[in-house]
């Protein structure tokens, strides 16, 4: 293999060779196997309803309740999970007949998608339903039914090939192997395109082959992502860089988890220095209440790297005053079980005392390379 | 600006001229207090006050009112002016007035039959005379009054008011034969006004008057000759209001003094049980014990501080019976309902009459109706029609107690009443003394006792409205419900069959049948 | 509900009882019309009416007012009650009342010196007597009046009001020696009320009264013995108001008749030029030609329709001079300004007095002040203090003409007046007849003539406010301007030197110097 | 494992080889040369101000006015241009001293960026200014000063290495050669990553080497972009696909123009069927009034492919009612000179009559491949 590539991309060759020597062992999980399990689950879901009907029953479904009171924080797993409360949806109930129909349709649509190896967006689902005369009132309703399907089957929507619009990007020394039709078996090293590669269905469903990186840095903002590529931070820190573009989509959270679990790489999360940045970090680490019905999204070992409130003071970063809504959010955080440990608790208190917040771009004040030369080494050293 | 002022002491040459003025002169000088401020408002007020007098004259004798009002232009109408001269003529079939009282009844301010404790429309005994006075000072012509009590004769007086003396001047007097035994009163005089501007208010006033006086027939011919006829809807009339004795809670020192001086009683027990509302022998006895007054005391020998003491005791004694409303003449559910139906033609209506209550010793009754649909327009708020002692209140709704209760006192969401529904509320307060805030009788003060009753009445009718609205919704719902199952259940069957990889779709007909049968109990 | 009604004809047994009631009786029965409805409001109204009478009594004789009011609790105060008995005592240094008029002035409704065309506070001649009447009916005690016109004697009367007859009863009369030639009046009586609840309004009323009567010294001792002293700020007093003749625009038939019957004139020319405001010989002549009335006609021989004709001509004749305001007594710019300064302690103040104007034949003057900063709080709207004939108007601001003009009539952005600035407007209307909407003298009707004047006055003061605000801004601006150049010009030099790849930074000192010199002309 | 890879790779090799045989001639434009010109312009701008100061003048700048009245539609160029009106900004004027200072600083900052081969986002500029004590009030102000610099020098901000946040993506058979540091000379074929590649600084500054595609399809929505990749539309239609993510950033518009000019490929624009979709298409074709001071952003030969209002009717697509704001926009469009030709004019009228609008996802109603099998072939055939 090495030979062929050398011909095509001779300059790249050397770098990859160098990387190869240090490549990590990867705990590989077959994406193909997972697909098969998904299909089986969907079929058996149809079977249950079919049998109910054959027995002359109004079809019904039981699933864990996603009501607030049933969303619990699991201290051991360090993430939100659903409790033992279940809800029953019976098509005999006037309020449930429509959602039950929509749920069955969504399952049958997902089954077809997977069979054909196609993907669909959440919005596509909303429109596709119209052809089958099970229209949704709005996309919120169809999104909600998809979450129901996740809860019933215990699989994430990405397993059904339903994706949100892509926003996140990845860059770094990781070689992946695609499983999507037409690319099966193709490999790609993720340093190939220095503007970053979209984390879409193809990347999400690919297997990880090899890497020379020894950490993951997850970045909230595109500008900082570009900056770290440009300043060769990925080389300097041997890092795979992931740009979440704000609160990361679930497919991105799964990629982060997989990188952590399968490659055994530590994850560092680098967000704006405000409660919203903290919320992004905690969602990656502990998951969100919204996705308490899914287990494979959180990365409990990931670490919040910044910006800390204390960093704003220490590095004298340009900052703005906390707004009322920021303060309210921080106060709410004090009651949230995910934030009880250090450094969360200390930083929340610090924010509330210092009353300033700061964006990642604020590092530009001290020159474009300051963050790579000064902040990141110091911070990585300390974590 | 001058700088010299008298600061020290010493004689002041008081050259003030002191004089007495008559009540007529007072109201002549300050006629805007009674609603006679400009040509538009004055014309409206004149029609209103005369009509209310006529209605009172019929109702006190349980006569079904037939009232004719005619307004016609007098003199030139060519120029565009602020005001024109009109002739107003109002004829009723009321009790009529004994001839000896006719001149004073129309020509003397603060004279009349209205200064008694009973429910009548005119509270101040001023309005009719103010109309005639206003006519006189704008046109300098006398007024004609014709009246008969239904015996063989009717009397016609031509009078003018001597304002300085507050006395009627009879310019002419005629006696007519009255073979048909007609009874009633005709008032006919000239006044300046502006009907074109006053018209909308005049007509709205007449329309609403008809609403709460459904047993009255009112015709109005306007200056262009157009006839407005408000027909009688019912021959049922409420009982005439009766006069009542003062309730002890409402007494002050002056009143007690007056009662004593008119009383023939020689001991306090008889005195107490004779002159007050809801006080019999037993209550009188208990009260006197409470007040530490001997039964045998002669009321005529009470001194000042003893009278003050009695008044204070009356206010603090807790066991008087509340005022009795037999003296009141409310419309009643049927009559108010008939009036509302006639005027608003609603899809639904409910009327409530509250039990009698009292404030400061004056009894009152609140009646409230609610109506939905028909001619009622949907508006952002709830439409309100206000009445007091069977007269509509047109102005200053925003300051009125009923509007305050509707806007602030009721949680409408609890009654499932959303904005933009075609809903109207009709409130009627009757009392021996309606607590108006102005002489113009435009809005009612927010006495807590009255507020409480209005709120309770509105809550009750709102409950009925909620029942009506939810029944209206339920029928619609049930239809939609069956449609829903018929639409979706087949799909559940189809998709689950496909998903399970089966061929034969299960039969869902039995399930759909069960929905139709047991459906209602399911939701 | 009964079903039998009288419908046909036939004799009606009219058993109505007709009677005359006295003005005192009328207002006794309807005392809420005059502001005496409940213990809280009545106490407020009593203080207010008595104080206004005292101020009038001083001002008509250009006496610097010294007024002392004392309110003290009488009797037990243990129980928690709705009302307590208070003694009110008010003493002024006014003109005093001649002894023969004292009983009627305080014990007879519709008697007094106020029924004349001139600017006084009390318009209805009712208030003081209502206070005494209210005291009498709640406490059954007489009132004490002491008065002297400043000669050697003072007179003390103990009176009560015979309400049925509307006559004072003198229970006792004393004559005291008055060596110090004191003049003034003391009124002292008991009444029921509730000071705890009335307090905020009483104090606000006194505070604002002091604001527009800066030449008055008012002391008030409340029932707890606390002394409130509103000190005199100036010894300058406005000229006392003068009585005036009626203006032809304001005349009606009744008034012309009265003037004729009191007149000694025997021809119309003399008649017209004698009895009316702003009509001299020439105007009289021109008017009579216009009205087609012969000069020689004897006014005493005019018939009814001729009088009506004259009134109509008076209303339509366009060339009468407008009413003269010499009969009015406005505060004037200086006095109003002094009052505002004392009460609000503002950073900036401007006061305007409009030229006299008239409505319906009554002259009036509008005075408006505007103030910024100091004790004025910043609020979302503009704070308004309203006055009429030098009395503050406390209630119903929302219905008042001045508030309407401020909220709807002025484009405040044009005057660069944004919300949340600490701005207050003070409006004062004085007139021989202020068009109040109620006997309680609470708000002023929106007569277009008055609205126009208020709007013009507010626009004028707003212009001054704009000038003040922009000057305040300009000074701040200039300072910032120089700072700006000193900060940025060196940077332009530095960066362009770097960018151009040069070493030596150009000298910018001369440029900076030029900014300081010519700066102002540059912006 | 290595063996397997070789096999897989070799299959890819053939495909690439096959493509190569049909590769198009590319009119290559050197990105390097352009950079040098930019630096020269910046230096001479500094020189002008320096000389003014040396002569004792308040430094001043003259540039074409960007006021509405000076933005003209050039019927020949089919795009907006600036007219002859100029504005003078003198540092003597109290209102201009601050913007002039900011402009000089921005120029000197851009110079440093280019010298060092770094890029910066618009937001970075906003923060960087603080270190030099020429703070901007907000990013709107700094963005505006950057536009001033573009106007003064006649270069786009991308030439100064100032980029907006990346959103757009590209996918298709195009081989590029990077010019960014560290990747100089590297080649990449843009079919490599089936989730799409970000159009960022690296891609924008790369040279085009070869392509087998014969058209460009520009797509407003991510879902449709993914759909067309998944349904192999790029093969079927031999198209390079570009996802604009709404109104395209200027760097994307430049890439489209370059693809059109350098490769000679026709461009088809595929947007939502509503006035906002039309606005995206027209901006790509004729440019916008906002960028009237720049010439190399428009692609006058590009064609609007849909959704037409008449398509909504013809294909019976699920649609929603036009809102008041849509109708207002359409009415404004009737006065806009860019829309006077067909099909614009006819479609605007059609929209106003039909009163319906439709999203690209609406095609899902007829199945996920409908758009590729039915709509696109028919439409491309007709254009």
Span between termini of chain A = 39 Å
Radius of gyration of chain A: 23 Å
Number of domains of chain B: 4
First-last Cα distance of chain B: 85 Å
**Approximate strand percentage of chain B:** 15-25%
The largest inter-chain interface, given as chain pair and residues per side, is:
B-C, 92 and 92 residues
**What is the CATH superfamily classification of the largest domain in chain B?**
Histidine kinase-like ATPase, C-terminal domain
Order of helices and strands of chain B: EHHEEHEHEEEEHEEHHHHHEEEEEHEHH
| CATH topology (fold) name of the largest domain in chain A | Dna Topoisomerase Vi A Subunit, Chain: A, domain 2
The largest sheet of chain B has its strands arranged as 7-6-5-8-3-2-9-10
What does this structure look like?
The complex is a heterotetramer, with 2 copies of chain A (383 residues) and 2 copies of chain B (523 residues). Chain A is an alpha/beta fold and 383 residues long. Chain A is 45% helix and 16% strand. Chain A is built from 15 helices and 17 strands. The radius of gyration of chain A is 23 Å and the shape is globular. The N terminus of chain A is likely disordered. Chain B is of the alpha+beta class and 523 residues long. Chain B folds into 4 domains: 208 residues, Heat Shock Protein 90; 69 residues, Helicase, Ruva Protein, domain 3 (Orthogonal Bundle), CATH 1.10.8; 137 residues, Ribosomal Protein S5, domain 2, CATH 3.30.230; 51 residues, no CATH class. Chain B has 13 helices and 16 strands. In chain B, a hairpin with a 2-residue loop joins strand 12 and strand 13. In chain B, the strands form 2 sheets. Chain B has an 8-stranded mixed β-sheet. In chain B, strands 11, 12, 13, 14, 15 and 16 form a 6-stranded mixed β-sheet that branches. The longest helix of chain B has 53 residues. The chains are: A alpha/beta (383), B alpha+beta (523). Strand 1 of chain B pairs antiparallel with strand 4 of chain C.
